[in-house]
Amino acid sequence: MNSTFVSEEFGRREADVIWRLAFQGRPIYLFLLIEFQSSVNQWMALRFLRYLAEFYQSLVAEGQTAPLPAVIPLLLYTRDSR
Question: Which range marks the domain in which residue 38 is found?
């Protein structure tokens, strides 16, 4: 799926990959975000939550009606130490 969305508040956001899958006849989305950072970002979960909210907003703007589909977020985060 298109993994670029735009919000007025945050500007352009890009996810690495978003797959649309069917599960029991309903769509679900697998949202994969890969972050390579040299230091710990203690707010990464909040940042990812914003990406998810913007993704849901893009679905609504495209005509999605309630209930919104399930989104399974996967964040791969690497750094030098644990």
Answer: 4-78
CA angle 37, 32, 21 (to 5 degrees): 180
| Block mean pLDDT (10 aa), the chain, length 82 | 52 67 90 75 84 87 90 75 58
Range 38-44 contact pairs with CB under 8 angstroms and sequence separation of 24 or more? 38/79, 38/80, 39/79, 40/79, 44/75, 44/77
For residue 67, give both structure tokens: 């209930």
Q: How many domains does the chain have?
A: 1
Residue 18 sits at the vertex; the CA angle it makes with 14 and 20, to the nearest 5 degrees, is: 150
pTM of the model: 0.69
Is residue 55 a contact partner of residue 69, using CB atoms and an 8 Å limit? no
Residue (of 37, 43, 42, 28) closest to 73 by Cα position: 28
